[in-house]
Amino acid sequence: MTHRSDPNDLPLSDLYTSLAAGGLVRRLLELAHDEDLGPEKRDVTTWATHASDIPAVANLVFRQAGVVSGLAALPDMIEVFGGGIEITSQVRDGDVVQQGAVACAFQGTALAILRLERTALNLVGRLSGVATRTRTFMEEIAAAAPDATAKVLDTRKTTPGLRALEKYAVRCGGGFCHRLGLHDAVLVKDNHLAGLSPAQITSFIAEAAARARREFPDQLLFIEVEVDTLEQLDAILELPPATIDIALLDNMSCDTMREAVGRRDSRASALLLEASGGVRLETIAEIARTGVDRISVGGLTHQAVSLDVALEFEA
After folding, report:
1. Is residue 242 very low, low, confident or very high in pLDDT (cuts 50, 70, 90)?
2. Does pTM top 0.85 for this prediction?
3. Distance (Å, rounded) from C-alpha 189 to C-alpha 269?
4. What is the SS3 assignment for 307?
5. Which of 154, 226, 245, 274 is catalytic?
6. Maximum CA pair distance of the chain?
7. Of 33, 122, 150, 230, which is the most buried if we count CB atoms within 10 A?
8. Is 139 a residue of the active site?
9. What does CATH list as the number for 7-131+305-313?
10. What is the location of CATH 3.90.1170.20 in the chain?
11. Among this protein's residues, is 118 annotated catalytic?
12. Dist CA 55 CA 53 (whole Å)
């Protein structure tokens, strides 16, 4: 099977460019522009207090330690807000910073800087929160399961409209992107298999995989199938090699996952196994020690808390 280019193979700068190329980031920034400045595109407070376009320099400051994410979007934000602002960065996305660190400086008019201030802080704070939470999960595995090789991946449990950037933030934190949406990979879940016995799953998946290959020969990242029981996994293991790429072990105990790894190793060693379902910081190291190859964690995004960042004007 020919796979499409994997976004996880791209360096961060190229990943942002790739994600932004589809237009979703631009649409998000345009929406943020419109919701803050309104139909007349006005910041009435700044206009009233800085009508002479006073030159200014403002620093984006991290009031909390964490992992930086979102700086890559600032040039696109400036273009959307139309401010003619210059940015000087002191750090890069993916860097770990301490409390009080200056990430970048904005130089332009006070009018221009204040128009985009809140949008910039909202975006960088949110994405840095996702990146920081992801780094915490990575550090937990490194400390408690140093021999484990499992990758930590995000899910589609993202903020509507922010998915591309939240997945970028996961990469900034050291994690990996799962599929971007319903369009770039096949993931057959329990709802697709409803009503099928384990004996029926093998032929059903074989037909679905063949159909996907015919219709989307070079557009898919992978073909993955969710299994809830070892009996369903056994059915998947009956498939010819390379029929599918990944089996998703949904909400299995660690003992069951260890058994699943053993069965996979003896019968279909090339098949990747992914743990999913209720993964927490307290459990991820034990899951990694089972020998699975991938661990998907919805909480990287839907439980992340924004970091406190501020824009401080120089006197």
Report:
1. very high
2. yes
3. 22
4. coil
5. 226
6. 76
7. 150
8. no
9. 3.90.1170.20
10. 7-131+305-313
11. yes
12. 6
